[in-house]
Amino acid sequence: MALVQRRGKTMTDFSQDAEAARWNYRPENPVGLNPLFSWPPRPAAVLRWYRGAWLQLTSLTLCLVLAVAAYTWFLPPLEAMQSFAPGWMFRVWLLNMVPQIMVAGGLHWWFYMRKGQGMYKKFDRRDLTRDNGTFTFRNQLWDNIWWTLGSAMTVCTVYQWLIYWVMANGWVPTVTWAQAPVWFVVWMFFIPMWSGLHFYWVHRLEHHPKLYKHVHAVHHRNVNIGPWSGISNHWYENILYFTTYFIHLLVPSHPLHLLFHIYFQQVSPILSHSGFEKIKTGETEAAKTGDFFHQLHHRYFECNYGTSEIPFDKWFGTFHDGSAEATTRTRAYKKQMYT
Ligand SMILES: [Zn+2]
Ligand SMILES: [Zn+2]
What are the Fatty acid hydroxylase domain coordinates in residue numbering (predicted)? Predict the structure, then answer.
């Protein structure tokens, strides 16, 4: 183990600590957190963080493009949604199903079937699991497809039907671009943060031993994750997880806000669970996909419950930055939790 002198104290060299050997690929630096919450303030780092998230090809920008396309070409106008009717309800279901199948199916094909970039920037050494009784249908892929398209897509669609219907009837405040352009943009910008806040607390609740055993364990069957693992959740977990959308009944929103929130909640987990940090075609790295922060949660369980957007894990002492030291700490915490 290599030790280096840094700021007068001896600490383990991140690039060569024992954790490196546990992965096929581990990012060079410790996992980063949103510097917006750093003290003293680091405005240049904040700017870099948001520029990296919004002005490049990332899951965030993909979700925004999907939302705009869905709103422009497929979503029925609100007036058509004042009463429940099969036409618009079917369209809303399709708007969930089609992007999910295309993105998860596409990434799975590239990474795991075609093996388009081999092991390049793949975190875990192992391939996805087959012929294993832990999984429904004894197969990780079919298990994940079932829990995503069956359970998750059903629950999220029912919630969306309700929200569009309430919005269409004018029972909650809505906004348009013409009425409040500044609010329109600001709220869009804050949706990922709201989602991170909601996710952290729901996720912590799911790690309560009882809920974990009967519900959240379905998602955690996937220690080694793939694109279809993203929202491969038990029914009860989905009922909780998708309550995040009900914020649009309280905060004045436009259908485009809801659509962006929908894709952020449903499509971006496909990327963050892809198991690869980046997608590479030919010689160029096309886009960031995986999220080592959440990959660590699937390997070590009792750490990184939230996202890197709001550093709850750092505040509550459960942050794993990818170092061997953090693994030792997490294992000790887990032991004390279950004894
Ligand atoms: Zn979990
Ligand atoms: Zn996960």
Answer: 193-318
231 φ, ψ to 5°? -125, 40
Whole-number Å distance, alpha carbon 291 to ligand 2 midpoint, is 10
How many residues are there in the chain? 339
Whose CA is closest to 142, among 180, 171, 108? Answer: 108
Cα 319 to Cα 280: distance, rounded to the nearest angstrom: 29
Q: State the pLDDT at residue 3.
A: 46
Dist. CA 233 → ligand 2 center (Å): 9
Confidence at residue 13, expressed as pLDDT on a 0 to 100 scale: 77
CA 206 to centroid of ligand 1, rounded, Å: 7
If you measure from the C-alpha of residue 339 to the centroid of ligand 2, how many angstroms do you get, rounded to a whole number? 25
pLDDT of residue 156: 98
Total domains in the chain come to 1
CA of 216 to the centre of ligand 1 (A): 7
Q: Distance between CA 199 and CA 264 in Å, rounded? A: 12
State in Å: Cα 93 to ligand 2 middle: 23
Q: Specify the DSSP element, H or E, that contains 285.
A: strand 284-288
Report the pLDDT averaged over residues 77-84: 97
Q: How far is the centre of ligand 2, averaged over its atoms, from the C-alpha of 219 (Å)?
A: 6
- Starting from the CA of residue 237, give the closest ligand: 1
Q: What is the mean pLDDT of the chain?
A: 93
% pLDDT > 90, the chain: 86
| Predicted pLDDT of residue 12 | 63
Ligand nearest to the CA of 291: 2
> What pLDDT is attached to residue 11?
56
DSSP lists the bridge partners of residue 281 as 284
Range of the domain at 97: 3-337
pLDDT greater than 70 at residue 4: no
pLDDT tens string 244-269: 999 999 999 999 999 999 999 999 99
What is the spatial distance between Cα 238 and Cα 244, in angstroms, rounded to a whole number? 10
Q: What's the pTM?
A: 0.93
Helices (H) and strands (E) in the chain, counts: 14, 4
